[in-house]
Specification:
With 210 residues, the chain is α+β, with helices and mostly antiparallel strands. The chain has a single domain, classed as Aminopeptidase. It has 4 helices and 10 strands, in the order ββααβββαβαββββ.
Amino acid sequence: MIGPPGGRPGVRRDGGNARWGAADATIGVVVRPEPYDGPIARSLVAALIADIDERYAGDEEPDDPEAEWALEVADVTPPRGVFLVAHLDGRHVGCGALRPLPEAGAGVAEIKRMYTAPSARRRGVSRAVLARLESEAAGFGYRRLQLQTGLRQPEAMALYETSGYGRIPNFGRWAESDLTACFAKDLPRAPTRRSGGRPRQRAAGGGRAR
């Protein structure tokens, strides 16, 4: 569950990172932003929830299942975050989201909603989405990414471990969970540019540094 092409670094007008252009292609995978409240996002998130429910069937339910899946649209919309959809062979086959995580400190964001449809697994979909999320995060000014996955999602854990993420203590509502694995990765600083001016570092979340 859950190799950008060339192009000059930059910042899109919608607040995203345009280093890879309008779409990213990795062995046929195309990754694009989509509105989180749109039909494509709803379809993929529903498939993700069904997948999680199947993997963890019989386990104790969270205290508040609705809160477990709550995600504010504004938090996954530039300049605070982003929701990405992976397309392969003309189908939307995966997704991932980035949102601010202020309780973890300034400049920290959280990766959410990583999912790949079963028919598209082992084709680089999640890796392409994760790489694009990291690029977007750096463009927004975030310096560290954290995420939560589960011990019954070994392919997700392998993806993060091979992408430079390290295990950290469980955090948030998952702090006491025996089935949860949390990871983090520090990002290199990525300066943004004034129009026609010198590079500057944008504050996480799209606002001015204070």
